[in-house]
Amino acid sequence: LALVERERDLEGVSIVVSAGGTREPIDPVRFLGNRSSGRQGVAIARAAADRGARVTLVAAHLDADVRPDPRVEVVSVGTADELGRAMDATAPGADVIVMAAAVADYSVAEVSAHKLRKQDSPGGLTLQLTENRDVVAGLVAARREGQTIVAFAAETVADDDELLERARTKAARKGVDLLAANAVGWTRGFEALDNALTIVDRDGRVVATASGSKDDTAHALLDAIAAVRVSPGS
Ligand code: CTP
Ligand code: CA
C-alpha cells in the first residue's frame, strides 16, 4: 500500500525542472560550455511524471542519448539568459521548481558576429566575460506562498565534510527550501550513470542522502520534496 501511495503522491502538483548545461556563444561557431549531460534533471522529470505530477522540463543542450519522457513538456533553451527567461515564464504556475541545470556563471561580453580569426589575435586571445544573473535567486525572490524551490550544487571537494559545508553555505545563501549537493571531478559526476546526493534544507540540516542510479536519486529527492511540502520549516 505504501508503494501505491508513493506512486501517485504528486498527483495535481505542477513541477518545473531545469536540466542540462547552458552554452554561451563566442562567435557563430564556438561556445563556452560545461559537462552537464542533463541526465539527472531528466530523471527527476520522469520520476515526477511517474508520481502523477504535471511536469515541464527546461532543457539546455541535453546529451543526445538523454531523452525526456514523452509525458513531459519540454522547453528548449541555449544560453543562461534564455534559461532564465524560460524559468521566469514557467515558475509562476509551478508548485515545485528544481534547478538541476548547470547554468553558466559568465557570458562573453562581446559576441563576435563573424568567426574569430587567428590572424586577428596572434599568439593568444583574451575573452572578456560578464557575470550572468543568478536565476534561482530571482525565483526565490519572486517565490509565492506554498512554492517549493530546490537548487543543485555540483562541487569539487576533498571529502564528504567539505561537500556538506559547501552545501550548507550555498543553501543558506540561495534561500532555497532544499539543496542537493553532489561531488564532481574529472572522472566523477558527469558521464556517470550513478550519482550520490546529499540533500540539505534551508537551515543546513541533512534531510536525506541517496546514491544509486539517477532514477533512484531522483525519487529520493522527490521524497524529500514531498516531505518539506507536508511540513514546511519543521
Ligand atoms: N544557478 C542559477 N543561475 C546561475 C548560476 C547557478 O540559477 N547563474 C543555479 C543552479 O542551477 C543550481 C544553483 O544555482 O541550482 C547552484 O549553482 P552553483 O553553480 O553551484 O552556484 P553558484 O551560485 O553559481 O556558485 P559557484 O558556481 O561560485 O559555486
Ligand atoms: Ca556556478
What is the N-to-C succession of helices and strands? HEEEHEEHEEEHEHEEEH
Q: How many E-type strands? A: 12
Mean pLDDT: 95
Tell me the β content.
25-35%
Helix content: 25-40%
Distance N to C terminus: 26 Å
Query: Cα-atom Rg, whole angstroms?
Result: 18 Å
Main sheet properties: 8 strands, mixed
Gross morphology is globular
Bound molecules: cytidine-5'-triphosphate, calcium ion
Strand order of the largest sheet: 5-4-1-6-9-10-11-12
Query: Which spans of ≥5 residues are poorly predicted at pLDDT below 50?
Result: none
Pathway: Cofactor biosynthesis; coenzyme A biosynthesis; CoA from (R)-pantothenate: step 3/5; Cofactor biosynthesis; coenzyme A biosynthesis; CoA from (R)-pantothenate: step 2/5
Organism: Microbacterium phycohabitans
Function: Catalyzes two steps in the biosynthesis of coenzyme A. In the first step cysteine is conjugated to 4'-phosphopantothenate to form 4-phosphopantothenoylcysteine, in the latter compound is decarboxylated to form 4'-phosphopantotheine.
Family: In the C-terminal section; belongs to the PPC synthetase family.
